[in-house]
Design a protein that fits this description.
The chain is an alpha+beta fold. Helix content is 31%, strand content 26%. It binds adenosine-5'-diphosphate (ADP) and magnesium ion.
Length: 390
């Protein structure tokens, strides 16, 4: 293949922060991005060449997008796999990752079954449809995380159930069609951003440690502060997952490290992922650039660490929605080790992801103390930011 610039135009279903960072990464490669998103002036719109305002599963909108681009991808699981496949076929435009992969991943039960069938380690799980059925599973597993099969994100759609007596309420809360997973008493959560390129080539980024509170990612630490054995196991599991998935692109592979040092797959995102934002500063080729390269079938860029990195998410305040005016930014701008990313959302709703900051350490010092210090400093800088009026 001979690659010429200006490059092709990439169509992205979804125009949130992931679409915005994809467009930022595509720009120096000479790749224009057109996004499709129902929210006028969505976060990506300020960076992308154009936005089609339409729902993620709107057939007319997606066919229009396919007509205007050279390759199609998505940054949100709510994209419609059938419509994507049909639009790609009609306009002879490749769609990556494969819409079939998206379809499998969209349903957490189908996803987990498919992984288990492929021999990939996952927590014990069961489909549940009735409160009585859930009660039995809660007893058998000694506590579960109940998950809506579709549409959950940032912990929405998940309810921990530790007593059989909580079954009926939990099932009502997730809306009925659910799966129950053994509640994993994990040592830590980790994630691997994996890449699948042309001809099935795979690459992984260094294993990331992910720190959640209230089921929402707060900080990521790279490389993860885990043992060499666990790191090797996580890389091996991630590579198996990549072999199993169909279609080019970057995949966010969320993992649990158990108390025994085993590695289990929690879930997969067929797109760039919050736990890989640190790759913008911490590697030579970010997850976003590599997603663009992979989808286009271009050579992949290096995924090796150039600096230990910690990302801290900037979330909307827990108590109430506020106008999206972030205060206290000077301290972050004044910190030479920090890089700030603002997503351009117009409303700071409770716990909404509004931006992030990444701290890097240029010394490539692999000891844990360096990352401990980066994490404390990242938290300190992030906690100094606020949406409250002074
Ligand atoms: N089986 C489980 N056991 C214990 N904690 C879990 C389990 N499943 C999920 N969690 C916690 O909830 C978080 C969000 O769950 P996840 O299934 O990844 O949903 P989401 O789609 O919201 O990311 C996880 O990162 C983890 O902290
Ligand atoms: Mg998750």
């Amino acid at each position: 293949m001979s690659i010429t610039l200006p490059g092709p135009t990439l169509g992205v279903v979804g125009g949130g922060q992931l679409g915005r960072m994809l467009a930022e990464a595509a720009s120096p490669l000479g790749v224009d991005v057109v996004v499709l998103d129902p929210t006028p002036a969505c976060p990506a719109s300020g960076v992308a060449r154009d936005q089609i305002v339409a729902d993620f599963d709107d057939s007319d909108g997606i066919f229009e997008l396919a007509a205007r681009v050279d390759a199609l991808t998505f940054e949100i699981e709510l994209a419609d796999p059938e419509v994507l496949a049909a639009a790609g076929e009609e306009h002879d435009v490749p769609v990556h990752p494969d819409p079939g992969t998206l379809e499998t991943i969209q349903d957490k039960l189908v996803q987990t079954e498919a992984l288990a069938d492929a021999g990939i380690p996952v927590p014990e799980f069961a489909a549940v449809a009735t409160a009585r059925g859930l009660e039995r599973v809660v007893e058998e597993f000694d506590g579960v995380m109940l998950k809506a099969r579709r549409g959950g994100y940032d912990g929405r759609g998940n309810v921990p159930v530790h007593e059989p007596s909580g079954a009926a309420d939990a099932l009502a809360a997730v809306g009925g069609d659910a799966m129950a997973e053994r509640f994993v008493d994990f040592e830590r959560e980790i994630a691997v951003m994996g890449l699948k390129g042309a001809d099935g080539a795979t690459r992984t980024y260094p294993v990331t440690e992910t720190i959640h509170r209230e089921e929402i990612l707060r900080e990521s630490v790279a490389p993860a502060r885990a043992s060499d054995e666990v790191i090797a196991r996580a890389e091996a599991v991630a590579t198996d997952v990549l072999e199993f998935l169909d279609g080019r692109g970057v995949y966010g592979i969320e993992l649990f490290e158990t108390r025994e040092g085993d590695v289990l797959v929690n879930e997969i995102a067929p797109r760039p992922h919050n736990s890989g934002h640190w790759t913008i500063e911490g590697t030579r080729t970010s997850q976003f650039e590599n997603h663009v390269r992979a989808v286009l079938g271009w050579p992949l860029g290096p995924t090796e660490l150039v600096a230990p990195a910690v990302t801290a998410n900037v979330l909307g305040d827990t108590d109430e929605s506020r106008p999206a005016t972030l205060r206290g930014v000077e301290a972050v701008l004044g910190a030479p080790e920090a890089d700030l990313h603002w997503y351009g959302k117009d409303d700071a709703r409770p716990l909404r992801k509004m931006g992030h900051l990444t701290l890097t350490d240029g010394t490539l010092d692999s000891d844990g103390a360096t990352r401990d210090a980066l994490l404390s400093r990242a938290r300190e800088l992030r906690d100094g930011l606020t949406f409250r009026e002074a």
